[in-house]
Amino acid sequence: FHKSLKIYEETKNKKGIGDSYNNIGMVYDYHGDSKLALKYYHKSLKVYKEIRNKKLMAGSYNNIGFIHKSMGDIALALEYYHKCLKIFEELGDKRGMATSYSNIGTIHYKQENFILALAYYKKGLIIREELGDKKGVAQSLSNIGSIYKIQKELLSALENFQKSLKIQEEIEDKQGMATSFYNIAIIHQHKNELSIALGFYNKGLKIFEEIGDKQGIVNSLSGIGKVELLQGAIKPAQEKGVRALKYAKEIGFIDQIKYSAGLLYEVAQKQKNWQEALVMRNLEIQMRDSIASDENMKAIANQQAKYEYEKQKALDDAENEKLIVIEQEAKEKQQVITYATGTGLGLVGIFLFFVINRLKVTRKQKGIIEKAHHSLEEKNKEIMDSIIYAKRIQSAILPPQKVVKEYLPESFILYKPKDIVAGDFYWMEHKDGKVLFAACDCTGHGVPGAMVSVVCNNGLNRSVREHGLTDP
């Protein structure tokens, strides 16, 4: 690729230069050198902007977003994924849109916003099925299975993973097959079918090692180590954990460092090596907090609202342009009629002058009234759009009815906010065999109250998840 880059630079072929930068970035990305990959992806983006090739720009945005996601910079990842999606929507590129939906869904998945994640994954699946994109369909099924896995719907999760694997075997997608083996192993591990889980983990590891996928190798090693630890094989589990952490640090991926550190923490506990346990636990918490920080959560909410707002604004602007054209055509027709009438009624000059004068005054008044009315409607629509976006964000933090019913089967929820959004919200968490729930009222009404409710919900989550509080 460096040789081809040199030739393209000598011939001043800008597209070739951009493509070479992108390919070099992909090689560094594949080998786990995130910083160099990011450097070359930005170089390719700069060239593509110069030649105004939107489709190639979208590809660079997508690649940059992936690197930022892997490095734990969630806000930047989401920003670049939205830029990518916006271009694909402008171009009507359905395949690109499906990829963007999948990537954005993964961001929300990492932040444990599973409702939004599932919505984006399903959007991507529908488009990929329409296009007959088998590889994409398999990926979407795998993503949806991951959501069901988190929600403890193991049968649904396993069904999606198996469907995904069947397609990947059909199209001989080795990386996809390895990922499906890994996912299926996790389900069997949750079902305490440890021997079956170990078999699938090893199948996945073998393929990941064949294709040199370090991220997949780390995930598989961590999974195998967990199962071996459950089976009482502490030393082999420790060996897997050490290898996994070494690879994870080489590629600099936050999630993988967290997984391998978590495994070594459990191993150190079993060995009663408290000093090592503390080091690994601190590393695991550090990686977790860098992914799910308050700043990232706020930035994601802002990015999502900004994307929805800009998308709606673009539609509104297009509609307004049409209305302006129609109104202009109507005015031009009215002028033609006025001049024709003036010519035909020339013999009644004084009377005609009076009529035309009054018509102008009336038209001017009408224009002022219409303009004021239009402005009022537009402002009202903007306000309502903002409130609806706030409602979406607030709804995303509320526990789903299905989850509430799972832990409190004879319960019901009566939620009737005074306005579209309000400071009232309900909350539920499951911790150490206890079901914690609350009905909360925050200071403020409307959008301000809803904003406060997001902060308060996060406070409750942190109290239980980070600080381990269970006493009301």
Q: How far is the N terminus from the C terminus? A: 61 Å
- Please count the beta strands (DSSP E, at least 2 residues each): 2
**Shape by Cα distribution:** globular
Q: Which class best fits the helix and strand makeup?
A: mainly alpha
Detail the poorly predicted runs: none
Q: How many DSSP H or I helices?
A: 19
What fraction of residues sit in β-strands? under 5%
User: Rg from C-alpha positions?
Assistant: 29 Å
Major sheet description: 2 strands, antiparallel
Tell me the helix content: over 70%
Run of helices and strands? HHHHHHHHHHHHHHHHHHEEH
Structure description:
The protein is mainly α. The radius of gyration is 29 Å and the shape is globular. The model has no long low-confidence stretch (mean pLDDT 82). The chain has a two-stranded antiparallel ribbon with strand order 1-2. It starts with a helix and ends in a 7-residue tail after the last helix. Helix 8 runs antiparallel to helix 9 (154-171) and helix 17 packs parallel to helix 19 (446-465). Helices cover 81% and strands 5% of the residues.
